[in-house]
Design a protein that fits this description.
Elements: H1 50-54, H2 58-90, H3 96-140, H4 144-150, H5 152-167, H6 169-193, H7 195-242, H8 244-249, H9 253-305, H10 311-352, E1 377-384, E2 394-401, E3 405-410, H11 417-424, E4 432-437, E5 440-441, H12 447-452, E6 454-457, H13 468-472, H14 482-492, H15 495-499, H16 517-531, E7 535-539, H17 547-561, E8 565-569, E9 581-586, E10 589-594, H18 596-602, H19 604-614
Parallel strand pairs: 3-8, 3-9, 6-7, 7-8
Antiparallel strand pairs: 1-2, 1-4, 4-5, 9-10
Helix pairs in contact: 2-3, 2-6, 2-10, 3-5, 3-6, 5-7, 5-10, 6-7, 6-10, 7-9, 7-10, 9-10, 14-16, 18-19
Length: 620
C-alpha cells in the first residue's frame, strides 16, 4: 500500500472517548534497557518571548506608540495652556486663543489615545491568537500519558485563561514606558516651574513606588497559584461532566459536589489572598497621592507667602501634579498586571517545554518500505511498566502477528491486552525489548508514517466533533468520493441513520447531534474500511453490539482481514473463536499462541477463560 501522511488532529473528541479508557494507557514507561529506552527528548520548542511577540506586528505597534506619544504631548500641553489663560485673564487679554488651543489639544489627545488603544488591542489579540494556536497544536502532539497525567481541564486553562492574561501584557508593555515617559516629562516641566516643589513631589512618589513594588512582587506568585487552582477545578468539573451518566445512575451528585466544593474553596482562599494584595495597591496609591498633594500645598503656600512663587506658576504646578497621579497609578497597576502576565507566560512555557511524542529527527527520517514477507507486528521480549505501578503491564512478551488475517489478543482483565495495542500504535514506548512493524523496528518509523499504516478503533468508539464526512475520512491521504462513502456506510448498516441526520454526511456530530454507542461503533468501523490500512487495531470492538450487529461485525472484520492484519482485543470470545491466530496473555506474559482449537486442546488457562465466559458449548 502506498505511503500515507498521518492525519493531524483537528477537533475535540465527542463524549468521554479517551478519558475513561482502561488504565492501560495512563502512564509512561520506565526504561530498563538502554537499547530500548524511550526516544530522546526533542529540542526545546520555541518559548514565549514577550519582545519577540511584541515585534511580530511592528507597523501596528509603531503606530500605537506614535499615537500614544501624541496623546501624552497633548496632555502635557494642557497645564501650560492653563497657565497662559490665567496670565491672559490677569492681563485683561483675550482668552479665545488660549481656550481654542486648549480645546484642540484636549480633542487631539483624546482621539490619539483612543486610536492607540485600538491598535494595541489588535496587537494583543494577535498575540493571544498565536499563543493559543501554538499551545493547542503542541498539546495535541504530546504523548497520551502526559496529556492524561496533566488533565484536560488543566490544559484547557493554559489555552484559555493563561493565554488571555498573557495577551493583556501587550497593553501593559506599552502603558508602562509611556506612563514612565509621561511622569518624567511632567517632572521635567515641574522642575522648570519650581525645583523645591518638584523635590517634595519626587520624595513622596519615591516612597509610594517602593511600597507598590513590594506588593506587586508578591502578586506574581499568587497569580500562579490562582491559575493552578483554576486548572484543577476545571479538570475535576470536566471529568465529572464526562462521567455524568454514571454520577446520576449511582446518585453520586453529593460526592461530586463535595469534591468540587473543596477545589472551589481552595481557589477561593488563593483568590482572597490575591484580592487582599490587589486592594492594597489603590489604598497605597491614594495615600501616597494625598501625602504628595498635602506636602506640595503646604510647601507652595509657604513659598507664595514669601514671594518666591507666583500664583499662575503654582496653579500650573498643581495641575501637573494632578496630571502625574493617573500616570503613577498606571505604573503601579501596570506592574501588577505585568506580574500576572509573567506568571501566565511561565505556565505557558512550562507546557511548551514538554517534548512531543514524535522523535526529534522524524522530519528528516524517510519512512521505510514494508518488507514483503515480514509479519505485520513482532514483539521481542517487550516489557512495559506504568508510572507508579507495582508490577509490569507486559513482562518479556514475545509474539508475532501475521501480515493478513484476524489475530485475537485475549486474557483476563489486566492481562496487558490494551497495553500491547498501545505499543503497536506507539502511544507508549517499551521499557525493554523491541517492537517491529512491517519488518522494521518501531523506532525507525517516523511517527506520522507509522500511523498512516494503521487504523484504530478504541473502546469508546471515539468520534471527533466534526462532520460525519470528516469522521469517516480520518487517516486518508485524499478525500473519498460519494460512492466510496456510500459503500462504507452500507457495509456497516449506517446508510439510513446518516440519511436521518439534519444535514446528512455534513452534520457535525456531538452535542445535540450525537450518535448512539452502536452507531458510533459502526461509524468507527466504516472509517477503518475507508482507511485502507495495513494494520487495523480494534480495542474491545463488540462491547455495544447485539447479536445481529455482531454478525455484521464479523463480516466486516473478515473483509478487512483478507487485505490487512486485523488485531482484536476482546473479552467476548464469541467474537474471536474463528480468528486465524489467538494470543493468550495473563499478568503481562504470553501464555500461548495458536488458533482457537489448538489452544483449547493444549492451553489450560485458555480453556478456563473460554469456559468462564461462554460455557462448555464453545469448547469444540
Amino acid at each position: 500500500m502506498a505511503d500515507r501522511p498521518a492525519p493531524a488532529p483537528t477537533a475535540a473528541p465527542v463524549g468521554a472517548a479517551t478519558t475513561h479508557t482502561a488504565g492501560t494507557h495512563t502512564a509512561t514507561a520506565h526504561s530498563t534497557d538502554p537499547h530500548t529506552a524511550p526516544a530522546p527528548a526533542a529540542p526545546a520548542p520555541p518559548q514565549v518571548r514577550l519582545r519577540r511577540e511584541l515585534a511580530a506586528q511592528p507597523v501596528r505597534l509603531a503606530a500605537a506608540l506614535a499615537l500614544a506619544v501624541v496623546a501624552t504631548a497633548a496632555a502635557l500641553a494642557l497645564p501650560l495652556l492653563v497657565r497662559r489663560i490665567v496670565g491672559d485673564f490677569s492681563g485683561h487679554r483675550s482668552l479665545a486663543p488660549g481656550l481654542l488651543m486648549m480645546a484642540a489639544a484636549a480633542l487631539v489627545g483624546a482621539a490619539a489615545q483612543a486610536l492607540s488603544g485600538f491598535q494595541l488591542a489588535q496587537v494583543g489579540e494577535g498575540m493571544t491568537y498565536r499563543l493559543r494556536t501554538a499551545l493547542m497544536v503542541h498539546a495535541l502532539r504530546l504523548p497520551l500519558p502526559v496529556v492524561r497525567a496533566r488533565g484536560t481541564g488543566e490544559l484547557a486553562a493554559r489555552v484559555t485563561s493563561d493565554a488571555q492574561l498573557l495577551g493583556q501584557v501587550v497593553e501593559v508593555a506599552m502603558q508602562l514606558p509611556l506612563a514612565a515617559l509621561s511622569v518624567l516629562a511632567t517632572l521635567a516641566v515641574m522642575l522648570w516651574i519650581d525645583w523645591v516643589l518638584t523635590a517634595v513631589t519626587v520624595a513622596a512618589l519615591g516612597l509610594l513606588t517602593a511600597l507598590v513594588l513590594v506588593i506587586t512582587r508578591r502578586m506574581r506568585a499568587n497569580v500562579t497559584g490562582q491559575q493552578d487552582a483554576v486548572g484543577r477545578i476545571a479538570q475535576r468539573f470536566t471529568a465529572d461532566l464526562e462521567a455524568l451518566t454514571t454520577i446520576k445512575a449511582y446518585r453520586a451528585e453529593p460526592l461530586a459536589d463535595r469534591v468540587l466544593a473543596e477545589d472551589a474553596e481552595h481557589l477561593r482562599a488563593v483568590s482572597l489572598t490575591g484580592a487582599r494584595l490587589g486592594a492594597l495597591v489603590p489604598a497605597v496609591l491614594t495615600l501616597g497621592n494625598q501625602f504628595a498633594m498635602i506636602a506640595v500645598i503646604l510647601t507652595g503656600g509657604a513659598r507664595l507667602a514669601a514671594g518666591e512663587l507666583k500664583v499662575a506658576a503654582f496653579a500650573a504646578f498643581l495641575l501637573y501634579l494632578l496630571q502625574t497621579v493617573p500616570s503613577v497609578n498606571t505604573l503601579a497597576t501596570g506592574f501588577g498586571r505585568l506580574q500576572a502576565g509573567l506568571a501566565a507566560r511561565d505556565r505557558c512555557n512550562e507546557l511548551l517545554a514538554l517534548p512531543p511524542e514524535a522523535d526529534p529527527d522524524d522530519a528528516a527520517r524517510t519512512a521505510p518500505t514494508p518488507a514483503p514477507d515480514a509479519p505485520a507486528v513482532v514483539f521481542r521480549a517487550v516489557s512495559y511498566t506504568h508510572t507508579g505501578a507495582r508490577r509490569e503491564a507486559l513482562c518479556a512478551a514475545s509474539f508475532s502477528i501475521p501480515r493478513t488475517g484476524l489475530t485475537a489478543v485475549v486474557g483476563p482483565s489486566g492481562a496487558g491486552k490494551s497495553t500491547a495495542l498501545a505499543l503497536v500504535g506507539r502511544f507508549v514506548r517499551p521499557g525493554a525489548g523491541s517492537v517491529s512493524v512491517l519488518g522494521h523496528d518501531l523506532r525507525t518509523w517516523p511517527l506520522g508514517a507509522l500511523r498512516a499504516r494503521m487504523a484504530y478503533v478504541d473502546q469508546a468508539f471515539t468520534l471527533l466533533e466534526a462532520s460525519a464526512r470528516d469522521n469517516l475520512q480520518l487517516g486518508r491521504a485524499g478525500a473519498a468520493d460519494e460512492q466510496e462513502l456510500a459503500r462504507a456506510l452500507a457495509t456497516v448498516g449506517l446508510t439510513e441513520d446518516v440519511a436521518r441526520l439534519p444535514h446528512g454526511l455534513d452534520t457535525v456530530l456531538g452535542r445535540e447531534f450525537d450518535l448512539s454507542g452502536g452507531q458510533r461503533q459502526r461509524m468507527a468501523l466504516a472509517r477503518a474500511l475507508l482507511a485502507d490500512a495495513d494494520i487495523v487495531l480494534l480495542d474491545e470492538p463488540t462491547s455495544q453490539l447485539d447479536g445481529l450487529n455482531e454478525l455484521r461485525f464479523r463480516e466486516i472484520v473478515d473483509r478487512l482481514a483478507r487485505r490487512s492484519a486485523v488485531v482484536v482485543v476482546a473479552h467476548r470470545l464469541t467474537t474471536v473463536q474463528h480468528a486465524d491466530h489467538v494470543i493468550m496473555l495473563d499478568h503481562g506474559t504470553v501464555v500461548d499462541a495458536a488458533d482457537h482449537p489448538t489452544l483449547l486442546a493444549r492451553c489450560a488457562p485458555y480453556r478456563e477463560l473460554v469456559t468462564s465466559q461462554t460455557g462448555p458449548s464453545l469448547r469444540t
